[in-house]
Amino acid sequence: MTNFQEIKKLVQNYYAELDAAAPDELADTIQSYATGDYFWRGMHPFNELSDPREVGNLFWRPFRQAFSSIQRRPDVFMAGNNVIDDVGGEWVCCMGHLLGLFDENWLGIPSTGKMAFLRFVEFHQVKSGKIAQTALFCDIPSVMRQAGVNPFPVETGAWFLTPGPKTHDGLLYGFQNPDDTGKTMDLIHRMINDLTSSGMESPQGELAETWHDDMIWFGPTGIGAAYTIKRYQEQHQGPFRAGLQNIVFNGHVCRFSEGVYGGFFGWPNLTMLPSGGFMGFPATGKTADMRVVDIYRREGDFLAENWIFIDLLYFYFQQGVDILARLKKINRT
What is the pTM of this model? Predict the structure, then answer.
């Protein structure tokens, strides 16, 4: 039985070296941990990169120049076997916040000189002691909100700095019970099958089969969070279904569990046609992809907490709405 301790330690060492590296050392640090065919996925405007040095120079260096005294504050750390057959492999996932002093503008977001949190989740595929793939999802609009900028007209859920698990047990650095791991994966599979077979409708009775009555759905900035199945349907699922049509489920790149935690990401998970009203934006007549991460905590026979990341900047960019360009234009005037 694989216990994933070696790949967990590799990623922990990677984070320690990356976080300690000077700005001009970041590219070298990433390259030293990457395979020759390394592939990186990131939120818009970074998207896809195949050169680890570009990852250091295009994403990490500007971020580290804008934010000083950064602390990595993980809430969930887990590893497992990817059950998506055409990708497979052993993966490590880390979710939490990067906390720093927002001293210089970043991506056109005006600096505040105050502490700010960048919410993130990162998946790494490890092969032969190297990182072969990375998917880094981070809530860039949350930084906008902390800087006093709200890029979205309507937010149907609640916005706040997202906490970690209620149980404070998400850092799975040690070996986990494989029976717990299997039970979590089975529950996530059942939930996904229910969702896709119903055309992404998520009726209340169906959700109650896999979700705890008091499920907390921690959505991304722009959509917000919801508490209990009933309020989730009122504050997210209802507006989602009302404002989006022809939803197609594309599957996932990675899906795994460990202990009572599990999750997945797609690239993209969904394709849909915005019909107007979702998040306050009008219909565009343009089909758009949605890249999504879901991280879950299981409690007994039900899923009790769900953390979601959606690349909303990319979702609207496909429809001709460049939120970052708008922000930069405002800052120049």
Answer: 0.96
